[in-house]
């Protein structure tokens, strides 16, 4: 939709990968709509995943005992967070929609993207206590996970060996995104592109592009245990 | 138990933290039993969490198109994985029990520990296709997650705002550990040490030490959806 701002947080090493294709069509379709798109290409940025003392510029509030959460919160308030964190926070702040594009690693995000969540979504910026879940600070923003899997849709069915795909979405969509207030749109899951035919891969990319045409009309999911674990 | 080998994968920045205390008593108690203990102190090692081309020494099997999973699998078979990965794989190979000691970050492990899982538990070493879940290559080993949380036990109750704590354990215990064949022992969850009294913290540390006295007699959990999501 014209005027909307979209941040794509992208975590794949290979530009010509299937994840790269999904990112590319998203940029094409959203640009066509007149959206402003920003991309955080985490591997290309060599984004730092580790949460360490380096994230605080200057003195710590307690040099004798390092508590990352406390120090990041204090540094956010004093504007003394490392610039790679504040750069990402600016991008999130300006975005109406944040799309996370990544391959599933161990039922979760790759470490480089987990580090983005650990470091960028700090207390004071994304939430406070109180000020989380429905009152999280990012509550006027949309978030969407676009995930590729190694396993097939059958493996990720309710009775599949890997359990329903909604199970592994809980920590990411509820524990992280909903906690920060994001309204979560339904995930875009592209199952097993590596064992799919070229035609099937093209169809998965096309369906993502197709969905994006009406993405601004979508209602967020009901981010409760029932959505994830209900029968 | 005398002769048993234990690997503790530890992910906290502050040695004097509550996580540090839990690690310390585990070393004390298991040493008393005559176990051999190895510790991977991830922050002290500045462990690399990013899964990149640097993980493969020498030529790639496909320099035109980087597929991390494929390249890591080929590098494992050709013994050309980066030494920080093979060093950890040796520690896992020798261990009878792997204890993961970490604070919960976004319903999951900190990125530095996620990177350990992403990079160390590669195809060929921890599993193959086929050769996963009950036939995963680490099937003769035990694994245990010792987790500290920010939220209280009430928040992580079935009807709490954060949902049952078993929900967030699914990707870690089933998707990663069980997939590699590990027999998973019940998690040790220390709820909200930061808001607990000194006495309560001491009691949590003591109960962990107490549990470790009989850890070798414990039966693994039934790593099925029922354990996580059953009523």
What does the model show?
The structure is a homodimer of 231-residue chains. With 231 residues, the first copy, chain A, is of the alpha/beta class. Chain A has a single domain (5-229), classed as Flavodoxin domain (Rossmann fold), CATH 3.40.50.360. Chain A has seven helices and six strands, in the order βαβααβαβαββαα. Chain A has helices spanning 18-32, 68-77, 83-94, 111-120, 165-178, 198-213, 225-229; strands at 5-10, 36-41, 97-103, 142-148, 183-184, 188-190. In chain A, strands 1, 2, 3, 4, 5 and 6 form a six-stranded parallel sheet that branches. The first copy, chain A, is globular and about 55 Å long. The mean pLDDT of chain A is 97. The interface between A and B is large, with 50 and 49 residues.
Low-confidence blocks of residues of chain A: none
The helix-strand sequence of chain A is: EHEHHEHEHEEHH
CATH architecture of chain A: 3-Layer(aba) Sandwich
Indicate how many domains the architecture of chain A comprises.
Answer: 1
Report the biggest beta sheet of chain A as strand number plus sense, adding barrel if it closes: 6 strands, parallel
Helical region count of chain A? 7
Mean pLDDT of chain A: 97
Could you give the count of β-strands of chain A?
A: 6
Shape of chain A: globular
Largest interface: A-B, 50 and 49 residues
InterPro entries (chains A, B): Flavodoxin_fold (IPR003680), Flavoprotein-like_sf (IPR029039), NAD(P)H_dehydrogenase_qn (IPR051545)
Pfam families (chains A, B): Flavodoxin_2
EC number (chains A, B): 1.10.5.1
Organism (chains A, B): Ursus americanus
């Amino acid at each position: 939709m014209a005027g909307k701002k979209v941040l794509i947080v992208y975590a794949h090493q290979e530009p010509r990968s299937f994840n790269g294709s999904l990112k590319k069509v998203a940029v094409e379709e959203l640009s066509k709509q007149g959206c402003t798109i920003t991309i955080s290409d985490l591997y290309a940025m060599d984004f730092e995943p580790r949460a360490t003392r380096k994230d605080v510029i200057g003195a710590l509030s307690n040099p004798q005992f390092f508590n990352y959460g406390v120090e990041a919160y204090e540094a956010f308030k004093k504007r003394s967070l490392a610039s790679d964190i504040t750069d990402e926070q600016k991008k999130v702040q300006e975005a109406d929609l944040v799309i996370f594009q990544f391959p599933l690693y161990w039922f979760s995000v790759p470490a480089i993207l987990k580090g983005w969540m650990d470091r960028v979504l700090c207390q004071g910026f994304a939430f406070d206590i109180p000020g989380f879940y429905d009152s999280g600070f990012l509550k006027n923003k949309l978030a969407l996970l676009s995930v590729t899997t190694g396993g097939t849709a059958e493996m990720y069915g309710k009775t599949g060996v890997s359990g329903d795909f909604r199970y592994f979405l809980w920590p990411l969509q509820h524990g992280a995104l909903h906690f920060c207030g994001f309204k979560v749109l339904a995930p875009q899951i592209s199952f097993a592109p590596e064992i799919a035919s070229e035609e099937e891969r093209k169809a998965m990319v096309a369906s993502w592009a197709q969905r994006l045409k009406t993405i601004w009309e979508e209602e967020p999911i009901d981010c409760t245990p029932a959505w994830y674990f209900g029968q």
